[in-house]
Specification:
Blueprint lengths: L1 E2 L2 E2 L5 E3 L8 H9 L5 E7 H5 L3 H4 L11 E6 L3 H14 L3 E6 L4 H4 L11 H14 L4 E6 L9 H10 L5 E4 L14 H8 L7 E4 L5 H11 L3 E4 L9 H11 L7 H18 L2 H14 L10 H9 L3 H14 L1 H4 L4
Parallel strand pairs: 3-10, 4-5, 5-6, 6-7, 7-8, 8-9, 9-10
Antiparallel strand pairs: 1-2
Length: 332
């Protein structure tokens, strides 16, 4: 699959942009594990043009994580155009426009998925961003605002006409948020539309290597994007890549997975500081499938979400190793 001149190989699997999740360390680990491309956290165009420090920091790219995309969102065309120029100077491999974020503080103000209720403005912003930069521009969006307005099969070709070089579609409407099951039917219809000449990437509920392979086989998409399934499990990209290439995969051992989580803890602390680094990373840890199915785990998960120091987290890891030794079959 190619986006402009950027070649991501056959059946690429990418890390989705996620606020408070896809920080530089996590992106790099996912790339090392097999993600074909990674995306930054959402970057507010309005905050960027105002030079808000916390937003400017999101533009940082580690050369080892390439190819990497910076995603921007906003409702003002002037701000989006200026933000795109600023982002281009940060040196990403492409710029992605967020027309899919469903959260109230974004969509409720007309940005993100809120643009699905104002298609003319969405198209204007897309055209202006494309014209403002020399980098490839892509779009990430949803099926529509609600179940009565699933417009993606009409919208996709119109966005393509604006000059974007790939489109990613999350198989839910904005009104669904992240509930229910993702519907890939319209994603498949969009890909099959003879008008579509750019890559179509599918997103939503891809949680296993087998699921990724099925998405490619059944819906014919050019790429697959993985989001929440990567929480506390960046090795999912390794498993998917192996399965797509060989029809089988060998999971990491439990000990190896714990080593990955320890690395995330260490690098989160190094990037920020201990307290904020732990607060940032514990969402990953508590969501890790490594702990799924362990009996009576709720108190341990709560303790993990309340931990404030590295020592606290590592002590919890040791306790898990001791308490569930007969289950996980490895001494940590």
């Amino acid at each position: 699959m190619k986006i402009g001149k950027l070649d991501l190989g056959q059946r690429p699997v990418m890390l989705a942009p996620m606020e408070d999740v896809t920080d530089p360390s996590f992106r790099l680990i996912c790339r090392e594990m097999g993600a074909a491309m990674v995306y930054t956290e959402f970057v507010s165009a309005e905050a960027l043009v105002r030079n808000v420090n916390s937003t400017l920091r999101k533009l940082y790219i580690d050369e080892r994580e390439r190819p990497v995309a910076i995603q921007i969102y906003g409702r003002d065309a002037d701000a989006m155009e200026e933000a795109a120029r600023m982002v281009e100077k940060a040196g990403p491999d492409l710029i992605d426009i967020n027309f899919g974020c469903p959260v109230k503080k974004v969509a409720g103000k007309g940005a993100g998925a809120g643009m699905l209720r104002n298609v003319p403005k969405m198209l204007e912003i897309t055209r202006r961003v494309v014209r403002a930069v020399s980098l490839p521009v892509t779009v990430k969006t949803r099926l529509g605002w609600d179940c009565e307005n699933k417009i993606i099969t009409d919208l996709g070709p119109r966005l393509q006409d604006c000059g974007i070089q790939a489109i990613t579609v999350h198989g839910r409407t904005r009104s669904q948020m992240y509930t229910g099951e993702a519907d890939w039917t319209l994603i498949g219809e969009l890909k099959a539309d003879p008008r579509m000449e750019i890559p179509v990437i599918g997103n939503g509920d891809i949680t296993t290597p087998e699921g990724a392979a099925e998405a490619f086989r059944r819906y014919g998409v050019d790429g697959v994007m993985v989001g929440r399934a990567s929480f506390g499990a960046p090795w999912i990209f390794r498993d998917m890549r192996q399965f797509l290439d060989t029809d089988s995969y060998t999971p990491l051992t439990v000990e190896e997975k714990f080593a990955v989580l320890r690395r995330q803890i260490r690098e989160s602390i190094e990037r920020i500081d201990e307290v904020r680094g732990i607060r940032h990373i514990r969402r990953h840890l508590a969501s890790s499938p490594l702990f799924k199915g362990l009996p009576d785990f709720k108190p341990t998960r709560i303790a993990m979400l309340r931990a404030e120091t590295e020592d606290e987290i590592l002590k919890i890891f040791e306790e898990i190793g001791e308490k569930y030794y007969n289950i996980i079959k490895v001494k940590l």
